[in-house]
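G.,

No rush on this.
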Amino acid sequence: MSGLRVKGIRLIADGNALLGPTVTGRLLDRFVECEPSKHAAAIGTLTGRENDVLRLLAGGLSNKELAERLALSEATIKSHVSNVLRKLGVRAGVQAVISAYDAGLVQPQPMRHRAAHLAEEANSKE
């Protein structure tokens, strides 16, 4: 089995969604049409913990990584993610992340910062 397939299977097993470029493009097109104020209002209904989960989700963390970072069980994380999705009126984590960006809850990080974070994470696993 190719490395790419194995990586995809691992992503899905960790609770992430694997979307092709066409689907992602359609999703982005749909959310561009939404009013940012709608996203901001919906994000305002999140609890502090749900807000934390959404911010970390937007940072690319898996459910397992969220659980480790917040010292919670994966089941609790899944419950928080479900609550976030329901409150934001979306069906997938990627949609929630788009809402977070649209509402200004999170900002894109410079590539240099992301590279440093990934290097730090890789070193911690050794």
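When you get to it, here's the other one too:
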Amino acid sequence: MMYRLLHITIVPILAPTPQNVIQKRMSDLGRDWMSYNAFCWLLWTNKSILTVSEMVMGDVNPGDQVLVMGVNATEVPNGRLPEWVWAWFNRPRNPFTGEVQTPAIPAPEALNLFDQSQDYFPLNDPGKAQF
């Protein structure tokens, strides 16, 4: 199977699964991944949706909500996210090997989405979030 982009949402119901557990699983499942908030992950993988779903559900707490779905990479995404997320989307990847064709983009420090002093959603500059 060729590599493609999957979107994974994990919503904890009782207690969150430690991030290092989820990060290890993403590394095991794909060549490149990122999390743009506390619940959503993007994974560049050659695994099936069923395989990814079963593996992720095996790591999170019973009862947590999990959604795994394919992303149509032929359509240009749009929205309002930090610039580093759009840079991640734009990285060229080999669909046969999954390798990133450019140097990896360092992830920012852990995001605290509840810290209102940081501007994660630049409402005053919608052009920043487009590519």
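Residues 19-29 form the longest helix (11 residues). The mean pLDDT is 81.

Enjoy the weekend,
O.
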